[in-house]
Amino acid sequence: MITFLAIKTRKYFNFLKDQLKKAGIKKGLIPYLEEFYQSFFITLFLSIFLFLLPNFLSLPKSYVLIFKILALLLPLVAILYYILGPTFIIKSKEKKISNTLPFALIHISSIAESGIAPHLIFKILSNFKEYEELADEIKKINDKIEIYGKDLLTALKEVARDTPSKSFKKFLNSLITTIESGGDIKGFLKVYSEQALFEWRLAREEFLQKLGTFSEIYVGVLVLSPLVIVALLIFMNFIHPNIGGLSIMELMKLCIYALIPLLNIIFLAIVKGFEVEI
Known about the structure:
The protein has helices at 2-9, 15-23, 29-52, 61-112, 118-125, 133-146, 152-162, 166-180, 185-239, 248-274; strands at 242-243, 246-247. With 278 residues, it is mostly helical. The chain folds into three domains: 2-95; 96-198; 202-274.
């Protein structure tokens, strides 16, 4: 049944084909959809169980609400994990490559100055695991040349097509143009590496400025606001002890143990998205 469903609905998920390849997920679209539907149905049954469970237990209303929220979130988490998961992996890879690319380019430029053949430069750099995801992309170039017997230009074009990093793709395409036009590779690498390092420094300075703004927002929203909300709830407890069927104490517990941690996680995710490794 799951295989039949995956085959019938694959046309709606064709956008995942390229994403799976760029994310490094070594699965075809059909097996990936089969895994998605299997996980979705498991979480759906678990969701129904959690939604009905409070009816058989004597629990406070706040706990019943938590159970129902979890029941609604479980299938949604499964959907987001499989549909948006490859995108997040691509973004993570792209970020890691962008952070290490300026230094790898300086390394490439230094090796090129010795007059070594271009394809050997990529062979040397593929062994430097310090470049993490970038080393994997460079290794693909080397493997296409040494294992599959392709020429340098073909290997560069294929990796440029499939790489998750826009900055690395831009570099490879520029290098391809330089080689095809018979340009000065050493000069190109020297100028390109210096420009990449300059842009990385600008991005780092911009991130530090944003970090100062984020710290002010954090203090205002996630430090002072919860104190104000708790104080307001305590005051309301004397006027009206119940809101929406929940007691003030239950609302305070929801704020302290659910809302505030959730807001902190969201804030950290936002900061992480702007982060530039220093």
